[in-house]
Specification:
This protein is an alpha+beta fold and about 200 residues long. The chain contains six helices and 14 strands. About 30% of the residues lie in helices and about 35% in strands. Helix 4 crosses helix 6.
Length: about 200
């Protein structure tokens, strides 16, 4: 969760919907996550999970015109940064040596932005990892930590946005796939809490 502002849910809903309208041309899939999705009365930021749409751009080559893939979400974000509709937000960067600095984040998997005065965390993923990332970015944070710890007893591990079974990645294209792979009964986003974690599978052999 970003250090943000106190925003009533009704306001955050409207701003998040406007933000999706801006970004959806660059996405094959995009949804609101975080505390907005959990329907908290007051939220501090807007969290978005997206899969970029990949287009094709024609460029001149040595042997005539060629095409190259283009990440349309990157193009949309860049255009709105230039126009001032979006801005980058400095966030804490925790280094392996324990030091902390502050820098802007505009990478291929995470962008720290501001839209309409509200901090925005944009998480970018792919089809196979959507369910895992969408669930974890919905949270809450203590739920995530317990879920990731408890799934180890059924030989599952969560790392880099993937579910791993005995070290092999398992696709989770939907959030229901993520829950199933962890042996966790489905809960609506607003029902999720540490007290509701109930991983209950026989340990796979």
């Amino acid at each position: 969760m970003s250090a943000g502002v106190d925003v009533p849910l009704a306001t955050a809903d409207l701003v998040a919907a406007d933000l999706l309208d801006l970004l959806v041309p660059g996405c094959s899939r995009i949804q609101i996550a975080g505390s907005v999705r959990r329907r908290k009365a007051i939220v501090h930021d807007i969290e978005i999970v997206a899969i970029p749409r990949i287009g094709q751009r024609v460029k001149a080559g040595l042997f005539g015109d060629e095409t190259e893939p283009v990440n349309m979400l990157e193009e949309e974000v860049t255009d709105h940064l230039v126009a001032g509709t979006l801005s980058l937000r400095p966030v804490e960067n925790h280094r392996a040596d324990g030091s902390v600095d502050v820098q802007e984040k505009n990478g291929p998997a995470f962008k720290a932005l501001v839209f309409d005065g509200i901090p925005v965390d944009l998480f970018i993923t792919d089809v196979d990892r959507w369910g895992c990332i969408f669930a974890l970015r919905t949270g809450p944070g203590d739920w995530n930590v317990r879920l990731v710890m408890d799934c180890k007893r059924i030989n599952r591990r969560v790392a880099e946005g993937r579910v791993l079974h005995l070290g092999k990645p398992v696709p989770t294209p939907e959030e229901t796939d993520f829950f199933r792979e962890l042996g966790q009964p489905w809960l609506e986003p607003w029902e999720r809490s540490v007290e509701r974690i109930a991983i209950d599978w026989p340990v796979p052999t």
